[in-house]
Amino acid sequence: MTIQTPSQSSTLDDWLCYLESVHPANIAMGLARVREVAQNIDLLDTPSKIILIAGTNGKGTTARCLESLLLAQGYSVGTYASPHLSRYNERVRINGKELDDQVHVDAFHLLELGRKETPLTYFEYGTLGALAIFKRFAVDFVLLEVGLGGRHDATNIVTPYASVITTIDLDHKEYLGDTRELVGYDKAGIFRKDTPAIVGDLKIPHTVTDYGVEIDADLILSKRDFLFIPTPTGFRWIYNDFDYEFAKPSIPAQNVTTALTTLARLNLLPEEDVIRQCLIDLQVEGRFQQLSAQPRVFTDVAHNPESARYLAHKLNDFKARGFKIHALIAMLADKDKLSVINEVVDLVDTWSCASLQNPRAELATNLQTLIPNIASSQVFDSVQEALDCIVPILDEQTVLIIFGSFFTVADAIAYFE
């Protein structure tokens, strides 16, 4: 069935439905098609300084930290992130704010005129749409989150002012490979010659540094050039002449140090008191986000082993204070579900498994088979059904954590809203 092309007066929902139909695949690696369309409508000639941000985890929190620190100094900032939790508009921000539907519609209309017969995936449309919006608003800085990997991701058509890799772990193995060396090499594809390349991972694969040296990138490496040192109440960051100690932020401190190092290398770091205030105010949706104070309910997008390890660290704080943990998990079928569960299993007292209303979702009954003590777990057809059952019986000494996917977090947020 042929879907009619929307117009500039169509709704954003009409456009999003159309974008899903233009390319037969959800993911299509390669830059040629995206670059051709970008050149057709002159998107690559931009006055904005672009910071490319890749990583298995931590892209969103690092971008939000950079955004906050740049805005605090009076710069205008465009930020592109994916996926969204509740609304497509979350993917593109100008100065920390979402945009009206019509701004996105205008960008997609421009792309449709410029792409001619070139097929684009949903993500490629979104990436080019974001670049069109940032050029329209002529922002000082663009923070561009890489979607998948780096080397062949649609975001990599730009010329970055700096490139950042947050963390490197196994995810999307069918596209990026099944070792950290292969994943790291793919992510290092966002590096450019003589351009700052900041890597925050604490165990950097040699393929990342080898490629950086090969192309003469300006490598700034964790543990070699800058240090992240956890402390009992927060963390310490050391880079060149900077030696600061901060209280524990609401996001992973390792990502904060990556952001600080990036701005320091670019001579864009604000004063220490400004940094402290930004970290106090910093909140990122879906990253150990509190949904209810009583009963205690949190949600987290943890969907791969590394992000589950960070979640375990947060849950351990509650266990140390005598709380019990009830985990509600819902995941996509193509994720490493067993490894995610194994990262937190020793901390969880009670399990519930739910199915997501998504064609890629894993069935709750299949998730349940991965729980060590199956007899003590429950299964539900949806996150909402699970919460209807769990929330009324939570006591004051139990913390409920809802995790496993961006879709899981979106369902949890919608329930409590």
UniProtKB/TrEMBL annotation:
Stretches assigned to the Mur ligase central domain: 53-193
EC number: 6.3.2.12, 6.3.2.17
Enzyme class, first EC level, given as a word: ligase
Annotated keywords: ATP-binding, Folate biosynthesis, Ligase, Magnesium, Metal-binding, Nucleotide-binding
Record-annotated Mur ligase C-terminal domain positions: 286-406
Substrates-to-products reaction catalysed: (6R)-5,10-methylenetetrahydrofolyl-(gamma-L-Glu)(n) + L-glutamate + ATP = (6R)-5,10-methylenetetrahydrofolyl-(gamma-L-Glu)(n+1) + ADP + phosphate + H(+); 7,8-dihydropteroate + L-glutamate + ATP = 7,8-dihydrofolate + ADP + phosphate + H(+); (6S)-5,6,7,8-tetrahydrofolyl-(gamma-L-Glu)(n) + L-glutamate + ATP = (6S)-5,6,7,8-tetrahydrofolyl-(gamma-L-Glu)(n+1) + ADP + phosphate + H(+); 10-formyltetrahydrofolyl-(gamma-L-Glu)(n) + L-glutamate + ATP = 10-formyltetrahydrofolyl-(gamma-L-Glu)(n+1) + ADP + phosphate + H(+)
Entry-linked PROSITE patterns: FOLYLPOLYGLU_SYNT_1, FOLYLPOLYGLU_SYNT_2
Family matches, as InterPro entries: Folylpolyglutamate_synth, Folylpolyglutamate_synth_CS, Mur-like_cat_sf, Mur_ligase_C, Mur_ligase_C_dom_sf, Mur_ligase_cen
Metabolic or biological pathway, per its Swiss-Prot or TrEMBL entry: Cofactor biosynthesis; tetrahydrofolylpolyglutamate biosynthesis; Cofactor biosynthesis; tetrahydrofolate biosynthesis; 7,8-dihydrofolate from 2-amino-4-hydroxy-6-hydroxymethyl-7,8-dihydropteridine diphosphate and 4-aminobenzoate: step 2/2
Task performed by this protein: Functions in two distinct reactions of the de novo folate biosynthetic pathway. Catalyzes the addition of a glutamate residue to dihydropteroate (7,8-dihydropteroate or H2Pte) to form dihydrofolate (7,8-dihydrofolate monoglutamate or H2Pte-Glu). Also catalyzes successive additions of L-glutamate to tetrahydrofolate or 10-formyltetrahydrofolate or 5,10-methylenetetrahydrofolate, leading to folylpolyglutamate derivatives.
NCBIfam families found in the cross-reference section: folC, PRK10846.1
Family designation: Belongs to the folylpolyglutamate synthase family.
Listed name of the protein: Dihydrofolate synthase/folylpolyglutamate synthase
Name of the gene: folC
